[in-house]
Amino acid sequence: MKNIREIILEKGSFERLNPMQEKMLESDSKRFALLAPTGSGKTAAFIIMMLRHLKPARKQVQALVVVPSRELAQQVAGELKKFAPEYHSLTLYGGRPLREELKSLQSVTPDILIATPGRLLDHLQRGTVNLSAVHILVIDEMDKCLDLGFRTDILKILKASPRPELFILTSATMPTEEDLLKRLGKLEIFDFNNTETTETPDIETIGITSFTKDKLHVLKTLLSNILPDGRTIVFLNHRESAQRVYDYLRNLSIPATLYHGALDQEQREISVITLRNGTTPVMVATDLAARGLDIPEVENVVHYHLPLSEETWTHRNGRTARAGRSGKVYVISSDEETVPDYIEFDRRWNPSEIEILPEVDQTTLVFNIGKKEKISRGDILGFLVKECGMEPSQIGRIDLGDHYSTVVVPKSLAPLLKEQLKGKKIKSRRFLLKIIGE
Fold it and tell me: Which contiguous run of DSSP H or E holds residue 156?
């Protein structure tokens, strides 16, 4: 049987473990805080320690991972499925019908629960989750939990949970609230925030001047220059501004997607999928996207609005140069703005005008049926081959959500496919089909 190191290296496609992950293989500590910046491999690190302490799968919840957001819950669940497929994990978070979670909990008891604080407390109050057998407790990104106002919820969860054999807290900084520290008890501190123990991301920071307060034209020019280099996230400080910039780019036929808190969960998931699969290589986002998204292929981060704090600057930039890759950070500032001292440029650049805007030759189809309707990737693939006469080589990445499926197809074929599939059924189920960006 493969050991934990071999599993993490193979399944995570890592060349080597970083110092924090090595520490998790060696340490005998049972109660500790893991302090490290965003994008440093904390998730893989605490999963390594979990794997060392998980008992054989049984019909009891033996591990609980508390996370601040639904996006992070999905990311952690994905990593656990990759590194520990023999254990059944279940995510609990708001923004989706509670009845779906209740049905899942009734059908099978998970070995591992990944939950946001509010939804977990809801289940505890209803008696639909039993934590009596939990011997591993992880509170992930505690600083973000506190930023989002979950301090009281965390205290309630700690009180409701039995004292675990293994307790892990991850955060960028150690919390200072006295009542919380008292409840957490004595923790060993593993601090990987300094550059001696954490590899410095290979990021080039580039300053771009906008000679007008409105930066839309500068953004268009920048994207026209950098889109051939890969995926890009454009950060703004407000939802309304993000919507305005997104509409502007779409009107120019620049393939972009939108991500902010006013969108529902399914819309945000599909936005991440289309960025990841490359059919919309630009994501226009608020700082909600600065944490919890696992998209290792993001090459560029653009600060359309200057960040409101140094912490925000750090977390935005953490979306690029992940998993040993390099990345570029672009800061667009007008003459009226004062660039904070914590932003230091490696160089300044005045991107040249490009008349021919970049195009993407593929698009994403979205079916409104998914895993909960018992649809598999093979069902989608076989359906397109049989009903549309497509070659398997024409069909790209297929992703499944609870109630949707996405598939990458040639952009030139998408309208014809949509027409061909009207009134059709997949496994006796009718569906609606839309084309991203239509």
Answer: helix 151-160
Q: Please state, as a whole number, how many other Cβ atoms lie within 10 Å of the Cβ of residue 267.
A: 13
Q: Residue length, the chain?
A: 438
Contact criterion met (CB below 8 Å) for 78 and 11: no
- Which among 433, 426, 308, 438 has a CA at the least distance from the CA of 377? 426
- Cβ-based neighbour number of residue 54 at 10 Å: 19
Structure tokens at 370: 């998914």
Contact present, 113 and 64 (Cβ < 8 Å): yes
213 Cβ neighbours under 8 A, 6+ residues apart: 334, 336
For 390-398, which contacts have Cβ atoms below 8 Å and span 24 or more sequence positions? 390/417, 396/277, 396/362, 397/277
- Nearby residues of 238 by Cβ (< 8 Å), 6 or more positions away: 286, 305
Please say whether the beta carbons of 25 and 5 come within 8 A. yes
Q: For residue 48, which phi and psi values (nearest 5 degrees)?
A: -55, -45
- Other CB atoms within 10 A of residue 40 CB: 25
Q: Rounded CA gap, 411 and 424, in Å? A: 21
3 state SS of 146: helix
Give the residue among 259, 258, 301, 257 at the shortest CA–CA distance from 280: 257
Beta strand pairing status for 347-348 and 166-171? unpaired
Torsion angle (degrees, nearest 10) of CA 79, 83, 88, 94: -10
167, 233, 425 from 51: Cα distances, Å: 13, 33, 42
Q: Distance between terminal CA atoms of the chain?
A: 49
Phi/psi of residue 259, nearest 5 degrees: -145, 110
Query: What are the pLDDT digits (tens) for 340-393?
Result: 999 999 999 999 988 777 789 999 999 999 999 999 999 999 999 999 999 999
Helix, strand, coil content of the chain in percent (nearest 5): 35, 20, 40
**What tokens were used for 360?**
């993407």
Query: Is 80 exceeded by the pLDDT of residue 325?
Result: no
Stated pTM of the model:
0.76
Give the tens place of pLDDT for each residue, 226-249. 987 789 999 999 999 999 999 999
